[in-house]
Amino acid sequence: MGSNIWTCPPWGLKLSTPIAAVCFAFISSSAGWATPTVESVAATSTTTTLGTVATIEPPPLPPLGGAEEFLPVPSPVIQLVIRLGDRRVYVYEGETLKDSFPIAIGRSGWETPTGTHEVIQMIQNPAWENPFTGDVIPGGDIENPLGQRWIGFWTDGTNFVGFHGTPNEESVGNAASHGCIRMYNRDVVKLFEMVEMGTQVTVVP
Asked: pTM value?
């Protein structure tokens, strides 16, 4: 073998061993240059005609941590609790009481159904049809018995029960409806913005 010098074509830069690079090893022989081979030599520094180049080790990556660090924090769930004896509906955000409103409930023979339900209808300015005459009062009419909002949460397939406004504000606080939850229009508008389809509604005595 002629020389211990490693040559990395095409630049012809001569590097003394050991080197921190992959080079083509050219071995001189009487027949000329042999077929190049690829070899890897590990080292902490490389000495070249240009000087010594240090090998820089990358710093270790920090641990990623748990998946919860990258997930959005869920908002507390809104749920409604109607206490018939209190004549009020309570709005909870998680376990925290956020608001409450006075209500009218179903009168004797038309009691508001107790149990756990969920919001199944949400209508702004609902129209009302008289169940006896078929006459319709359009939504937005000041005489509309449903007021400015409807939030349905119970049905037997034919009849529906829900929160709604009322032009008869003096009935709020009493057992006066056919099962529905009457509210002041300003309150049902506010409640409408706090709930969504599927919001849980629990009715207790």
From this structure: 0.66
